[in-house]
Amino acid sequence: MPTILIVEDHEDTLEVMARIVASFSYRPLRAHTAEAAFAVLVTEKPNIIIVDGMMPGMNGAEFTRLCRADSATARIPIILHTAIIDPQFSRDAIEKGVNEVWHKGKLDIDEMRERLEHYLAASGEKNLD
């Protein structure tokens, strides 16, 4: 079963995202901060990471930069999920290694599933639902 790590500091958003991921027959992992996500990555190897753009402490772009610098996490697709609709913010995130940027409230569930399946297919992972 594909595993998706969701890194989000707002509990409601985290739970909604986890429910959506579970509805696709994927296993959601949860972390409330970038630091907590790194602790998860010590024992788990998710297929995809969805990270919030702005969190207390380390933001999503910086989290991504550090993931890309570590051989254990460098190849995991990372999607930045953000409320910030600023082209420069998105460009900066992509320069730090984010695969793509999703804007909160702008992505429907079917598109979300399609994008996740794209990354899973690219890695050879298949959804067995």
SSE arrangement:
Blueprint: E1 3-7, H1 11-23, E2 27-31, H2 34-43, E3 48-52, H3 60-69, E4 78-82, H4 87-95, E5 100-103, H5 109-123
Parallel strand pairs: 1-2, 1-3, 3-4, 4-5
* Distance between the ends: 9 Å
Strand order of the largest sheet: 2-1-3-4-5
Unreliable parts:
none
Helix count from the secondary structure assignment: 5
**Share in helix:** 40-55%
> What share of the residues does DSSP label as strand, in percent?
15-25%
Question: How many domains in all?
Answer: 1
CATH class: Alpha Beta
The profile of the biggest β sheet is: 5 strands, parallel
Number of strands: 5
Q: Could you say which overall geometry the principal axes of the C-alpha atoms support? A: globular
SS content category? alpha/beta
- Which CATH-level-2 architecture? 3-Layer(aba) Sandwich
Written as H for each helix and E for each strand, in order along the chain, the element string is EHEHEHEHEH
Nearest-integer average pLDDT: 93
Might you state the CATH topology name?
Rossmann fold
- The CATH homologous superfamily name equals Response regulator
